[in-house]
Design a protein that fits this description.
Layout lengths: L11 E2 L1 H13 L11 E5 L14 E8 L7 H11 L8 E6 L11 H8 L3 E6 L9 H7 L3 E3 L4 H17 L3 E8 L18 H11 L4 E5 H7 L6 E2 L2 E2 L5 E5 L18 E4 L4 H10 L4 E4 L3 H9 L5 E6 L25 E9 L2 E8 L8
Helix pairs in contact: 3-4
Function: Converts 2,5-diamino-6-(ribosylamino)-4(3h)-pyrimidinone 5'-phosphate into 5-amino-6-(ribosylamino)-2,4(1h,3h)-pyrimidinedione 5'-phosphate.
Family: In the C-terminal section; belongs to the HTP reductase family. In the N-terminal section; belongs to the cytidine and deoxycytidylate deaminase family.
InterPro entries: APOBEC/CMP_deaminase_Zn-bd, CMP_dCMP_dom, Cytidine_deaminase-like, DHFR-like_dom_sf, Eubact_RibD, RibDG_C, Riboflavin_Biosynth_HTPR
């Protein structure tokens, strides 16, 4: 016999606290892959007999988070409840993202919640994906109470690059630069290893481990012979990003990019950043890291396709040599490409400045 729906073994939470817990669950999942990070907490129904209101703490019946391409957070939470014999009829599901309403690799979460008898669904962010959206409308049609927008800004921040990629219809682009104090990426003879120190390089590998693809030009591939792998203190990261090379020249047979210790090599025979992103979007890539030299950086910046810059700056002066960016066609300061500083961090003797593109049109009223 199923346990009473008011029986919980994981403490009690208000709806607001349950949403924060859903965020915590979602954040436990790596950011890689085409699917968003989502967490779900199922709370017991409001007990009229106990005189509790909708804002009072309620027993936590079950929890779940998605795991890459596997079951979604809501399905995991429902399975958690079923496994422990807990009846969720009349319960409230608190989810960080609107339940999906389509059949893809898994069945629709909206249908699963309604079929389980959940009486209320509270979500943070409305699903921006055209294919998956519509869960809230479906649930309302089944008589389920739906409340959206709880801690929405935090929910959007948690979704990160996935959120921006789905809305823009292309991968989120982070541009990495590593320069001297005077903006040089290499000395006059072309040498560039190492402008920054070990702490900055270790941080950059951590960033690599959190993206779906690393993009360089054929010039960088041929000159530097990089491996474009993501490494940790213990060796290679478990999941390796795609290694994307942009340009018409071939990657040599013996290049480190062809070694089996990294992600798939993806040659894209184009110089158009928009074509690069379209090809990667077709692969369900959500976040790319542009690590190429000044030519590639300039192309992405000139096309207005850089969402975030990671600028590693070393206390080194070169006085000459290649700059981080080429001519962007800026004739006057009013036409400068503006970014907003997100944060600044010291990494050994170096400094990392993270700045995001100013896109006022994306702000909601």
């Amino acid at each position: 016999m199923a346990t009473s729906p008011t029986t919980g073994t994981r403490g009690s939470l208000t709806i607001d606290a349950a949403m924060r817990r859903a965020f915590e669950l979602a954040a436990e999942r790596p950011v890689l892959g085409p699917n968003p990070r989502v967490g779900c907490v199922i709370l017991a129904p409001v007990s009229a007999a106990a005189g509790t209101g909708p804002d009072a703490p309620r027993a936590v019946l079950a929890e779940g988070r998605n795991a890459g391409l596997g079951p979604h957070a809501e399905a995991v939470a429902l399975a958690d409840a079923a496994r422990r014999g807990i009846d969720v009829r009349g319960a409230t599901a608190v989810v960080s993202l609107e339940p999906c309403n389509h059949t893809g690799r898994t069945p629709p979460c909206s249908v699963a919640l309604a079929d389980a008898g959940v009486a209320e669904v509270v979500h943070s962010v409305a699903d921006p994906h055209d294919v998956a959206a519509g869960g809230a409308a479906y649930l309302r049609g089944r008589g389920v109470t739906v409340v959206g927008g709880v801690r929405r800004r935090e929910g959007e921040e948690l979704l990160g690059a996935w959120w921006h990629a789905i809305r823009a219809g292309r991968p989120y682009v982070t541009l990495k630069t590593a320069t001297s104090l005077d903006g040089r990426v290499a000395a006059p003879d072309g040498t560039s290893r190492w402008i920054t120190g070990p702490d900055a390089r270790a941080h950059a590998h951590g960033v690599r481990a959190g993206v779906d693809a690393i993009v360089v030009g054929t010039g960088t591939a041929l000159t530097d012979d990089p491996s474009l792998t993501a490494r940790t203190d213990h060796g290679l990261a478990t999941d390796q990003p795609l290694r994307v090379v942009v340009g018409h020249r071939d990657v040599p047979a013996g290049a480190r990019l062809r070694a089996h210790d990294g992600g798939e090599l993806v040659p894209l025979r184009t110089h158009d950043p928009a074509e690069v992103l379209a090809a990667l979007a077709a692969r369900e890539v959500r976040h790319v890291l542009v690590e190429g030299g000044p030519t590639l950086a300039t192309a992405f910046l000139a096309a207005g396709l850089v969402d975030e810059v990671h600028a590693y700056v070393a206390p080194v002066l070169l006085g000459a040599g290649a700059g981080a960016v080429g001519d962007l066609g800026v004739a006057t300061i009013a036409d400068a490409h503006r970014f907003t500083t997100s944060h600044v961090r010291r990494l050994g003797d170096d400094v990392l400045v993270v700045a995001r593109a100013e896109r006022p049109q994306e702000e909601e009223s």
